[in-house]
Amino acid sequence: MSSDHVWGDDMPDEGRKRLQEAQELHRAKLEGVVRKLANTPDGQYFLRWLVRGTGVFQADYPADHVRAAFDAGQRAVGLSIVTLCAAVGAGNIIINNDEVNNG
After folding, report:
1. Burial level of 51, CB count in 10 A (0-12/13-18/19+)?
2. pLDDT tens-digit series, residues 28-70
3. Which residues of 53-78 are buried (b: 16+ CB within 10 A; e: fewer)?
């Protein structure tokens, strides 16, 4: 998330620096959790289950705009998880799994 989204160019430099540090810490914590999960069979199962539940790898044609918005939100969460997995070198756990790819 960009700090410009909230503050624009008016954010003081010190505030911008603190926000960036907080975002980096948040990202590092999330990557650490994903790394730990990816190192165990149960954790890998959980990551696959979580990504599968978001529908990231499924083509879908929702019946209405409400369902389309809901599905888009789920996919956004799933893509965040896939991105975290890729960042820690565990993307293959998600991408190469037949259970996820074939539904």
Report:
1. buried
2. 999 999 999 999 999 999 999 999 999 998 888 888 999 999 9
3. ebbbbeeeeeeeeeeeeebeeebeeb
